[in-house]
Amino acid sequence: MPELPEVETVVRALRRPLLGRTITEVRNYWPRHVATPSLAELQQRIHGRRITAVNRRGKYLLFPLDDGQTLIIHLKMSGHLAVVSRETPPDKHTHTIFALDNDHELRFRDTRKFGKVYLVEDAADIVGKLGPEPLEDSFTVTVLQERINGRKRPLKLMLLDQTVLAGVGNIYADEALFYAGLHPERRANTLTTAEITALHAAIQKVLQMGIEREGASISSYIKPDGEKGEMQDAVAVFRRTGQPCYRCGTPIERMVLGGRSTHLCPVCQPET
DNA sequence: ACCGGAGCCTGTTAGC
DNA sequence: TGCTAACAGGCTCCGG
Fold it and tell me: Strand C nucleotides below 7 A of a protein CB?
């Protein structure tokens, strides 16, 4: 489900019900959901800890606890988080449950089981290698230029590399390249300053669009409250193969880059 | 340093 | 209708 706008939507929805709550119990039905430490150790170390913040870094959710540890969750492809009454009937794909001190539970549902739970003393152990946050003021055109400086990789692969830039995934990479008018296979080191400036603006534009629309419910993503986002109605190219480009009418094309579906308008995003 | 492919999982959809 | 293959918004590991 999750790219930066979807994770941000989840964080905003969870902040109120989780802030200040104490975790009283962790139940788990798929031990591999817990990446580190062992399930038993996580249960022991998290018991009685209070959640002091609900934050996002890239596509990770961060829950700092009152003893300095941080609970970290990554939703990967199909993860879903919600705070519900403990009376809510169980779901087949809910593999990890954090019981709270108010008869509610944070439930981590994850059909494909790619998601991960971490409990660490230092959050940097997990998120330390991530590139800059694209919506922070510190992410300037110059920063983007430095990140891609001299790299020969195709732009699409650069945008998906979380150590270059944190939070962009397959949808928003395609969307950003469309608005920047850049072909996904363009080599990063061939960009002019004007093109880097356009790419920088496009990245911020599409991520902000996604956040305003509370995420893209294109396949399985839904918000914590179970409702759909609205970004799927505002995508320009992603999974619009064969449909006319909104700008020029040319049919949108699909190609595979780095093993990922990639969508573009061949006229608005010329190869050179 | 970079690229492609496999692997991790289950569910949905496209095609025969 | 039923079967099979392809595909899915992420990321890591391996070999070349």
Answer: 7-12
Paired residues of A41 in beta bridges = none
- Annotated catalytic residue, options A49, A56, A59, A186: A59
With a threshold of 0.85, does the pTM exceed it? yes
CA angle A62, A233, A9 (to 5 degrees): 15
* Near-strand C residues (CB closer than 7 A): A 1-3, 6, 58-59, 74, 76-77, 112, 114, 160, 162, 169-171, 215-221, 229, 239, 259-261
Peptide bond preceding A154 in cis form (omega within 30 of 0):
no
Q: How many CB atoms lie within 10 A of CB A100?
A: 19
By three-state DSSP, how is residue A143 classified? Answer: helix
pLDDT digits (tens, 9 = 90+) for A79-114: 999 999 999 998 999 999 999 999 999 999 999 999
Please name each of the domains of chain A with its CATH number.
Answer: 4-127 (3.20.190.10), 141-264 (1.10.8.50)
Cβ atoms of residues A104 and A17 within 8 Å: yes
φ/ψ of residue A23, rounded to 5: -85, 120
